[in-house]
Design brief:
Layout: H1 6-20, H2 26-47, E1 53-58, E2 69-71, E3 75-77, H3 86-97, E4 101-105, H4 119-130, E5 134-139, H5 141-148, E6 154-155, E7 158-159, E8 170-175, H6 188-196
Parallel strand pairs: 1-4, 1-5, 5-8
Antiparallel strand pairs: 2-3, 6-7
């Protein structure tokens, strides 16, 4: 067991270490941070009913020849059940359990011609729209380190995305197996376990 201060201390040190130490292993550092954070918030996350949770999945986990279409305000729209699509299977599992919403987040940088928001803006918009009590996110360590790590939005009760006045969200995260999204996979068993956790 660790003390709560381990999480904000790691967050505080992340950016200076990444800038000043050429051999700094960002991926390993973030994996340790996510493990500690998940451990700290696990009990609270389990107590949040499925209907008050949001799930965000990265579209880079889709199969190579995925026929799904991009809808700007919904992300990747899995309209059909594709055989051997683990991403669609995870999405359907969370929806069947009663999650408030499940989104497959598309890269707005790569698909800006489709009117898609940047992934961070998309996620913040959906949090504002649904006002969940908890979020579960699958993400690569590179994106997590670059876009989301902020000490200002963290407290022992959870995250305060965007505005400090809003209630805190209980977070859980699953990192992709590679540090970036390209050709990556995830530990599907870990993801299913967290989705089902009660």
């Amino acid at each position: 067991m660790f003390h709560w201060l381990t999480v904000p201390l790691r967050l505080l040190l992340y950016h200076p270490l990444a800038r000043l130490w050429p051999g700094f292993d960002r991926d390993r550092y973030i994996r340790n941070l996510v493990r500690e954070s998940n451990s700290w918030f696990a009990g609270r996350f389990r107590r949040v009913p499925y209907g008050e949770r949001l799930l965000f999945l990265p579209y880079c986990l889709r199969p190579r020849h995925c026929p799904a279409i991009i809808i700007p305000d919904r992300g990747l729209d899995c309209g059909t059940e594709c055989p051997d699509c683990r991403l669609g299977e995870v999405k359907r599992e969370a929806e069947t359990l009663g999650y408030r919403a499940v989104y497959v987040v598309v890269s707005g940088r790569l698909h800006q011609d489709s009117g898609v928001l940047r992934s961070r803006d998309f996620i913040m918009e959906k949090i504002r729209q649904h006002s969940p009590a908890a979020i579960l996110v699958a993400v690569c360590s590179m994106d997590l380190g670059r876009k989301y790590l902020s000490l200002a939005n963290l407290s022992p009760r959870g995250l305060f995305p965007g505005e400090r006045k809003r209630r805190s969200l209980v977070p859980q995260g699953v990192l992709l197996l590679a540090p970036n999204c390209r050709g990556s996979q995830v530990d599907w068993d870990e993801l299913f376990m967290l989705i089902r956790s009660r």
